[in-house]
Amino acid sequence: MKIKAIKSYFPILTWVADYQRDTLISDLLAAVIVTIMLIPQSLAYALLAGLPPEMGLYASMLPLVAYAIFGTSRTLSVGPVAVVSLMTASAIGHIAAPGSVSYIEAALLLALLSGMFLLGMGILRMGFLANFLSHPVIAGFITASGIIIAVSQLKHILGISASGENLFHLLTALLNEIANTNLYTLAVGLPVLAFLFWVRSGLKPLLMRFGLGDKAAGMLSKTGPVMGIIATSIAAYTFDLGQHGVKLVGDIPSGLPSLQIPSLDHSAWRELLVSAIFISVIGFVESVSVGHTLAAKRRQKITPNQELIGLGAANVAAAFSGGYPVTGGFARSVVNFDAGAVTPAAGIFTAVGIGLAALFFTPYLAYLPKATLAATIIVAVLSLVDFSILKKSWGYARSDFIAVSTTLLVTLLAGVESGVACGVFASLALHLYKTSTPHMAVVGEVPGTEHYRNVNRHKVITHSDILSLRIDESLYFANAGFIEDKIYELIEKNSAIRHVILMCTAVNEIDLSALDALESINQRLSDSEIKLHLSEVKGPVSDILLTTDFIKHLSGEIFLSHHLGVQKILAQNAKSEEGGTPNWTI
Amino acid sequence: MKIKAIKSYFPILTWVADYQRDTLISDLLAAVIVTIMLIPQSLAYALLAGLPPEMGLYASMLPLVAYAIFGTSRTLSVGPVAVVSLMTASAIGHIAAPGSVSYIEAALLLALLSGMFLLGMGILRMGFLANFLSHPVIAGFITASGIIIAVSQLKHILGISASGENLFHLLTALLNEIANTNLYTLAVGLPVLAFLFWVRSGLKPLLMRFGLGDKAAGMLSKTGPVMGIIATSIAAYTFDLGQHGVKLVGDIPSGLPSLQIPSLDHSAWRELLVSAIFISVIGFVESVSVGHTLAAKRRQKITPNQELIGLGAANVAAAFSGGYPVTGGFARSVVNFDAGAVTPAAGIFTAVGIGLAALFFTPYLAYLPKATLAATIIVAVLSLVDFSILKKSWGYARSDFIAVSTTLLVTLLAGVESGVACGVFASLALHLYKTSTPHMAVVGEVPGTEHYRNVNRHKVITHSDILSLRIDESLYFANAGFIEDKIYELIEKNSAIRHVILMCTAVNEIDLSALDALESINQRLSDSEIKLHLSEVKGPVSDILLTTDFIKHLSGEIFLSHHLGVQKILAQNAKSEEGGTPNWTI
């Protein structure tokens, strides 16, 4: 039992002991492919975050090892991702100037805060909180972030400078500067962009026509960005494009990152905390949804609370090794999975691959145009943009549509943190509003069964002196008054009523406010000589009701089933009328 | 129809046209009694709010007339009340020094903001928002406010100065100053306090022993505070107590308030807005609950959204006539009701009575000791203090107890606004948490019926290849993942299952996130050759489901009743087994 507990905190122990040679080969192969994909991504996302390119590489080393030790997904590929890089730029851009030392220090601090918050959530088992981000909110947020990221990178393609935190500012800045477009930069950026778009759909079929298998062709087509990098770097070197105003990556210090303790500046700490929480939650949700999807395909499981610890450890590792906030990336994890990764060892091998790149390949990156990296980002994030959720939610339910569109619009117009906050608020508020004005149905017996359904939707049997009312919600403070008013309204309409049976099939809770409401309903009905009954009260609810005085005051009964209740009342009526037949109509 | 719409905005039109002589006499009598009660209250609550006494009187004139025109309660007595006066002191104390002109201007502005907020809520029909203040939150808040108010008034009884916004600060300040107690003040304050406590329980029986009727004795006992005022004023005048350090009310300008437009200082406006919202909501909830209680006794009705307009108009009137925020008061409204008030005309007559007092009686109030007013407040608010809710909620449900105790403690330790905010947040968070981890029950057939109940609580019939699962909550984003995991868990435990029927009696909603979860449940069960069925899906839910692709993908069926579903599956099994008997156990 103790070993099991230790294993649950160190998932690496579940697979490392019986690690096989076959597995090693599979993992190594996947690691090679992911490394080739991750090098341009690391550089590009560091650019997006406004950080020097080597920080992207550093964020792709130790964090992967930390996740391999603590994470529960077998195939998740942790590292820099687009949305978190955007959020990092936005958070640290508020407290430091891009390019300054304090900007870099803020990024490290942000990773540390984010890691500690994730670890704390994991230890406190608060993973369930992520459930409060609904699918519409996530979909709206991802689409809006994709648009903002793509637009923010256009400046690199055009060779101008333009920045802004929301779409409106970004577009205005771009339009103001568009006359200054550097044609050499555009001559690099546009072809790469076109090439990468073509690679997405055209390269794989072409390779297959050259005789490659489906899988090999798919893998090879993921090297598109690397081909773009090699081609444009050579072009930049050959034609000395840097002299013509094409911005290049420039010298990247080669070697591994030095381990260091992030500087804990008190004021920065406080200013970054909220952003760190947003980044943690968004990163966690993105990562867990990828992890779930991949795990389900192989009948494996991931444990959300341990995932918090895995991602927390990864971010703390990033903070101590010159990186910036990381999480599990979607595209990369799918490639890792498809390339045959079996265990998190693939992640460790990938980290080694990136380490080798940092040691030996950085001199070759000096001539890499930033426009190439921007094109890589644009092509990657535009695949996130998906407006179909707007149509789908519109057709499904207005509340889901409002949640999507609120998140989408606020993210575009006011930034990522506001967008998520408003989206979550809107979806919770709509849910609460709906439960505060619940649906109620007068029900009757479906002929030939003991089943009771809405009189307005089904041909059912009712009795003039019995009001059978189904309340379609738990009774709690937000709807207690509403339900009380509705019951009085129904009774006022029909003076023949002598019995009210509340059918409690959907009543999962009765809180103290609602109990007070039931007490006054019972009192008021008693004054009018109407009996109040309850039927089909669930176990947990009746357990609580039985401890209260309400049960003593209740003028009627609590029936096991609605049908039994109606039968009993009819039998009593028949008896008191000395054989008179009950008055019923279909 | 048009006239009805106008009448709904001006409820005065519903009764003023056929106003009778009998009604006039009843209303006049009630007005006289309420006026006698309201004079000391107005002065005392103005003292509590840190405002000059005449502002209490001004707040008891025009606001009553405005409410009589726009309010829907026949007997509610609007004016200064304890809790709102405390909240006023706390709000304007932040931006101005008590006694300064800007303090008074802030009070007027607060009344204006509060009135406009209430009017806005009323016009937008947002009265339902008040339902989100649960009974436990209100109870905790009222008790804590009562304690804070009573303690805050002790300084007047002791003749010292001590202030503080929370209980801890107040008590510390009192202890620091207690050595400076003015014995003359104490000699006035203590006897009045004792007298007023005795009046509450002892005066009525005494009067009845002298032959007065129950009702007359009850009414007369409400004049206790006035007797206290007269007696202590005479004593202060006779013994020149002001010279011995007893603080007196002093000169009150006589005459009616001058109408004026509150000064709209921009920065004050912004600082007071949040407080104005809190005051509006708390005042509204207090007033509506009194209004409801009294209206129910006479089978009348109040309309919450029109009440917002009535109270909004009253507060705007207060702002324009030198008053401060007002609302419907509990004790005073009950007296008005018991004294026989029939229409809001009683309120208008009360306003006239207070006007006469302001014109002719203010010179007599100059010698009134502040200790007397403080004693009036203490006795009034201690009746609000009721700790029984703690015990009641503890015995009922932990979530209600947490809501009560959070509100109570935070109000005591951090002030009224924080207390209400934390209470509402806690009760909503607890409710959401509960719905995010819903109860689910495996159910079976109660023998001899078509009713299905929890296998753990009832002796029921189950079938080894059918999992009948009742989900006791609407399916929405916060619980979709939880429910999905639980279903997989149940299936893993039992490999004989071939059919899962989700009994949807408590499913009042399926949102887009939950629909996605159902899709993946259906997919995963299909992969394991298990059919997914739904039963007893409610009308509104099935209407939406029928528009989706989920219905097309669903491997099983949607059954009208759970029983019909089980029967159908058993019949199919029997057929496919060529007459084999179904495998069932009790």
Automatic annotation (TrEMBL), chains A, B:
Residues 456-555 form the STAS domain. Its main location: membrane. It comes from the Bacteria. It is a multi-pass membrane protein. Keywords: Membrane, Transmembrane, Transmembrane helix. The keyword Membrane applies. InterPro entries: SLC26A/SulP_dom, SLC26A/SulP_fam, STAS_dom. It is found in: Membrane. The keyword Transmembrane helix applies. The chain crosses the membrane at residues 28-49, 55-71, 78-97, 103-124, 136-158, 178-199, 220-239, 272-296, 308-326, 346-366, 373-390, 402-430. NCBIfam families: sulP. This is Sulfate permease. It comes from Zhongshania aquimaris. The gene is sulP.
